[in-house]
Amino acid sequence: GIAALATGGNAKIVTCGEVTALNGSGVNAIALGGDATIDTTGGDVNSMYMGVGALALDGGVDIDTGNVHTTGSGFEGSGVVGIAVDLGSGSGDVDITTHGDVTADNGLFGVAAFATGGNATITLGENTISAVNGIGVSALALGGDATVNGADSTVIAHDLGIGAAAFGGDATVDAGDVTVSNGSGILASAFGGDTTVNLYGDVSANGLAGIGTFATGNIDIDLGANTVSNIAGIGVGALALGDVVIAGSDSTINSELDGILAKGTNVTVDSGVINSNSGSGVIATAIGGDAIVTTHGKITADNGLFGASATSFGGDAIVTVNAA
Length: 324
Description:
single chain; about 325 residues; mainly beta; 23-stranded parallel beta sheet; 13-stranded parallel beta sheet
């Protein structure tokens, strides 16, 4: 396909037409001591190995893509990948924006951003990200924020729909429709910050959690008027050292295990309709603060221990049941 290598400067590629590399990589840029920038919005990229990939050592990565399709397997068969490492004088930021669909037939990632010393930001637009044998979208930041802007997107994956992990920053996911055949829908964790998940579409999973979150700070989850289904595990999970707020009064959760499982300093849960096959409906546990659960829809947990439970060690525990 097309490759650019810069030592001591920036590497930049702009394509104005289709790029096809049926036995190789599509478009790749490497900058050693500078920024790596790729813009393939001018045409489709079709390749066996890495569709669009950028690496910046002591710099930042900025990628804009159109349609991308890869057929290779493993990491090298991923659709779009950006990696930035701050060695002392570079930004270490990775910014990826998809302006078309990304399809990785056998690759590990559909879209992935890995930032060391900076922020990892992925913006998906109104596009479909498909990794039917891997992970749909992944943002990892070591020393910054991990953000996935995908409110209008569709993500289809095998192992994990959307993953965001921040070490030393915040993890934020805005998700549209997410479908995962053999794993969790959304996993977001912040070690040293807060975690926020806003749902704008339905989540269908077959793994540990439909939505699973962790934060050393606070967790905020807004389910909107959407459905979270998980045929293998819990519906929505939140574990925080700070406070947890789950807003789901208009939502529907269908799960094999607990519908909502939340633990934090103060825990506030507003639940909608919950159907749990083998677990409880809502379990909220506060350590040192208040646990408040308010139900706004019917909870069915025929084989679980609780319909709705609030437990507090050091504060108030309140369950309010509204007419379903």
